[in-house]
Specification:
With 358 residues, this protein is mainly α. It is built from 16 helices and no strands.
């Protein structure tokens, strides 16, 4: 395979001139069917290992090496389990219904990230008329703004578990009694986005048909856990370890998010599918890449070319296109050799953008 191409710091959006979109799509038509025999074992092993390791951490002294091994294993495994929400959004409606329900019951609800928090919002992220604009809750101009703002975004990872806990434990029940509060929660505290100022539109079918039931169940999970700790049945250490693990999950995902796009759109231009691809990033890597960008997300640019392609096919698609003599020169423009390289490129873009603005 050709060496991954390096992209220098640029101003503005990279325009897709001569990108062979039709030819690229024709080479991967056989890779679009999700395989439940891959989804189920992958998810179940991840979630069982994650919760089992969390329980083990609770039972170990905090200063022991056993605690920290269990903590790291729990964080990585539950991170992988959580990321399956990305697959759920892209699965064709009416399919994998049991998988969706089980994911919520043993991952989404206890992690306080039910699938409705990603439905709809992420679908909009892939629309050419929304991607990269101010209507896209999953996009901020990280590559065109002051670099210190990118650092603040990462540090917010340690606050997010508290916000979700307050949302579902306290504010959600109040929202059932006070409709204006409920509407405010939907608009401003119901989306897994990176733009904290994002206002979610009114619910549609794209947000899932059972979002209200998911909200109720998530709140019940939080209230029951809190009651068990208050009554002494469950130790408060469970909350501390849960908070630590979820903070690490959000932290890893924040670095993954920063490395997922070039973020050069200041928010006022629409982009074609090919331009979305060139504004996105593949970091194929190996085992390490699979840890910080699990469930296929290290092939994020490839995913933006083929949003409906299941995660277990993205690696094959990447290798096929990256080795094609005519397509590779275009395709590899979205690749980075490592996450560190992607982050350095983003930082350089941000600094260059600020220098031009002076």
């Amino acid at each position: 395979m050709n060496e991954l191409r390096k992209i220098s710091a640029m101003s503005g959006i990279k325009r897709a001139k001569g990108f062979p979109l039709r030819e690229v799509r024709g080479l991967v038509t056989d890779l679009m069917t999700p395989n439940p025999w891959i989804y189920w074992p992958d998810f179940l092993i991840s979630v069982i290992l994650g919760w089992g390791a969390l329980a083990a951490a609770v039972m170990q002294p905090v200063m022991s090496w056993q605690f920290w091994v269990a903590f790291v294993v729990s964080s990585l495994a539950l991170y992988r389990a959580a990321i399956f929400t990305h697959e759920i959004v892209h699965l064709r409606r009416g399919t994998f219904m049991l998988f969706r329900a089980v994911w919520n019951l043993i991952a989404g609800f206890p992690l306080l990230i039910p699938s409705f928090t990603y439905m709809g919002v992420h679908s909009d992220h892939h629309k050419p008329n929304i991607y990269g604009t101010r209507e896209d809750g999953e996009y901020l101009p990280f590559g065109a703004q002051a670099p210190w703002k990118n650092v603040v975004y990462v540090l917010l990872s340690f606050l997010l578990p508290a916000l979700f806990l307050v949302r579902f434990l306290v504010l959600t029940p109040l929202g059932w009694l006070i409709p204006p509060l409920g509407r405010t929660l939907w608009e401003g505290m119901s989306s897994l986005t990176i733009d904290l100022s994002y206002k979610r539109p009114k619910p549609t079918k794209m947000d899932g048909e059972h979002w209200r039931l998911q909200e109720v169940c998530t709140s019940l999970y939080a209230m029951v856990a809190f009651a068990l700790m208050v009554s002494g049945i469950m130790p408060w250490k469970v909350l501390a370890v849960w908070y630590g693990v979820t903070s690490v999950i959000f932290l890893m995902n924040s670095f993954r998010t920063l490395g997922a796009h070039a973020y050069r759109n200041p928010g006022d231009e629409q982009m074609t599918v090919a331009e979305q691809f060139l504004d996105s990033v593949d970091v194929p890597g190996g085992v390490i890449s699979a840890l910080w960008a699990p469930v296929g997300l290290r092939f994020h640019a490839t995913h933006h070319l083929f949003p409906q392609m299941p995660y277990h096919s993205l690696g094959t698609a990447y290798k096929r296109l990256a080795s094609h003599p005519e397509i590779a020169p275009h395709f590899l423009e979205a690749s980075r050799p490592t996450l560190w390289h992607a982050l350095k490129t983003l930082w350089a873009d941000a600094r260059a953008s600020q220098a031009r603005a002076r």
